[in-house]
Design goal:
Layout: E1 6-17, E2 20-31, E3 35-39, H1 46-53, E4 61-67, E5 73-75, H2 84-87, E6 89-92, H3 104-111, H4 119-131, H5 133-136, H6 148-160, E7 166-170, H7 178-193, E8 197-201, H8 205-210, E9 214-219, E10 222-228, H9 229-234, H10 236-242, H11 245-260
Parallel strand pairs: 3-8, 3-9, 6-7, 7-8
Antiparallel strand pairs: 1-2, 1-4, 4-5, 9-10
Helix pairs in contact: 3-6
């Protein structure tokens, strides 16, 4: 169904909201242990792609296949979101990514539910806390009282609690200070180094592409460009259209024109 080294393949995916079709035949592939960035302008369908993969938005056409913990290819096109943890997939949404009224520890325990309620879950939570000391220091606090960066760290810790093989992140840098963003991206690279495959949607695309193995550019719900992360980050067309150079140049030219008039 999919190649042996592929952990996720979304093929010809169409989806949307109500009468609006957002994704129009999108293809995305993630290989084992690799980081893949999906980028594009606002409204291009990036977040909708992740929501469709995890079943929060219904596939209208196409399919999504993942490789589960046991190495079997599983079609998850119609799988419920709550069933994905046992298959090895974790998802961190852009907003509402922690349970604000629950304690930090309760958030982690909820994340570890796919492992059952025995010793395996406790051991995994302890392992995650070794990676996130800032989370360990706040186990008894209500998650809603954490800062934005602390919430993002908790969301990542909770997503890693069930020991996933595939992690989907939607805008992990959104609303965070630059130094916190650097810390988040460092954690993502660390997860990948330990064998977790990662699909990330990110507006800070230049930074994300710099450590991604592969990248996709979506535009108007369709695949526009794809290639190695470093190649996309240095591609003049991608830079001009999607990484800000074109907009900055237009603003500069407009300011010069105003000054000359």
């Amino acid at each position: 169904m999919i190649e042996d080294d592929v952990i996720l393949h979304a093929q010809g995916v169409e989806s949307g909201y109500g009468d609006a079709l957002i994704l129009r035949g999108v293809d995305v592939l993630v290989r084992k242990g690799k980081i893949v960035t999906v980028m594009g302008p606002n409204g291009s369908g990036k977040s909708t792609l992740l929501k469709t993969v995890v079943g929060l938005v219904r596939h209208r056409a196409g399919r999504t296949v993942i490789r589960d913990r046991g190495g079997e290819a599983v079609d998850i096109t119609a799988t419920r979101p709550y069933q994905l943890g046992k298959l090895g997939l974790s998802y961190i949404p852009q907003v509402a990514n922690v349970f604000a009224d629950m304690s930090v520890l309760e958030n982690l325990q909820l994340g570890a539910l796919p492992l059952g309620d025995g010793g395996a879950a406790k051991q995994r939570i302890e392992a995650v806390l070794e990676v996130f000391p800032v989370v360990r220091d706040r186990l008894g606090k209500r998650a809603g009282t954490l800062s934005g960066g602390q919430r993002q760290m908790l969301a990542m810790a909770r997503a890693l609690a069930p020991d996933p093989t595939l992690l989907l992140l939607d805008e992990p840098s959104a609303g965070l200070q630059p130094d916190v963003v650097d810390s988040i991206f460092a954690k993502i690279r660390e997860f990948s180094a330990h064998g977790v495959s990662i699909l990330i949607v990110e507006q800070k695309a230049r930074q994300s592409l710099s450590f991604s193995d592969y990248g996709y550019v979506l535009d108007m719900g369709r695949n526009r460009y794809e290639g190695l992360g470093a190649d996309l980050a240095s591609d003049p067309t991608v830079i001009d259209l999607y990484l800000g150079a074109g907009r900055l140049r237009s603003e500069t030219e407009a300011a010069d024109a105003d000054g000359a008039s």
